[in-house]
Amino acid sequence: MNTTSANRNRFAARIVTADQPEGLDMYEPYWRLQQAPFGSDCGSRCYFAAGSHEGALLKLRYLIERGEQCGLLVGDHGLGKTYLSRVLTDGLAAEKYAIAQVVYPRLTADALLGDIAARLGVDPGEEDSAAGRIAIRVEHRLRQMADEEKRVIVCVDEAHLLDAPHFQTLQLLLNLSEAAGCLVSLVLIGQPQLLTVIRRVGGLSARVSVRTTLHPFSPEETAAYVRHRLRLAGRDECPFSEETLSALHELSQGVPRQINHIADLALLIGFADELTALGPVEIEAAAAELACVSAD
């Protein structure tokens, strides 16, 4: 049995035999942390300015500040596209911008327009939900926002899943904004195939002024990111050695979501084994545990 396998069995046994297994979820005091450092609920204050992420954020801010109509943010799973869009919108003044975050785009085209309308505070009015009537109410709301000197930001997540009717609805929204004299900026967020999909939608593609792609962290960025999250959680001293951070980068492939999962579980393993520092063995054990969960 290799070291990693032995550590995995030791960790599993610790979970089974612990007198208070619920305590295994509370490793923060053991590592002198004020909170879990690698949770997904950290908010925009946890933003780490990696190269491609900072570049994408600057481009999207340019899109909004210039009042451009459409931008694309693409990247593979786990790179932080949705999170970056929240960082973007959290930095906008509420008195100047109205924001609609569409998180489930697999609606009908009419329902997509209705969802955006509701997020912009459109009065639902009569029970009639026909697209034409919704469009009239949306245009009226946009005129109100123009009078209030407000701009509108619409972020559509998983946009690579949209079909032609959905894109036509988004074009309609931009047409309504022009008629109402209200600046509307669309941020379409999705997998890399979105770049190909959008080219087939001529009317909308012509309005895209920003295309930006997120990439995995470099080894140096992975190490800096881990230290950044630990500091935010209240610990200046990093329990991961340089060798350990290299192993973490290799096994996570620099994908932030995977870094979070592996590092979090490694801290739990270290707590269970009463370690004072974490080595590559703990990283390998954590990655193996996560792979087993994925396989199951």
Give short descriptive properties of this protein:
296 residues; 12 helices; single chain; five-stranded parallel sheet; 5 strands; alpha/beta; Rossmann fold; elongated; 52% helix; 2 domains
Description of the structure:
The chain has helices spanning 3-17, 51-65, 81-90, 109-119, 131-147, 164-180, 194-199, 202-205, 219-232, 242-252, 256-272, 280-295; strands at 70-74, 97-102, 151-156, 184-190, 208-213. A five-stranded parallel β-sheet has the order 2-3-4-1-5, with helices on both faces. It folds into two domains: 3-44 and 217-295, no CATH class; 51-213, P-loop containing nucleotide triphosphate hydrolases (Rossmann fold), CATH 3.40.50. The chain has 296 residues and is of the alpha/beta class. Residues 12-24 have low confidence and may be disordered. 52% of the residues lie in helices and 10% in strands. Helix 1 packs across helix 12 (280-295), helix 4 (109-119) packs across helix 6 and helix 9 (219-232) packs across helix 10 (242-252). It contains twelve helices and five strands.
In short:
By secondary structure, the chain is α/β, with parallel strands linked by helices.
Please render the helix and strand layout as text.
Elements: H1 3-17, H2 51-65, E1 70-74, H3 81-90, E2 97-102, H4 109-119, H5 131-147, E3 151-156, H6 164-180, E4 184-190, H7 194-199, H8 202-205, E5 208-213, H9 219-232, H10 242-252, H11 256-272, H12 280-295
Parallel strand pairs: 1-4, 1-5, 2-3, 3-4
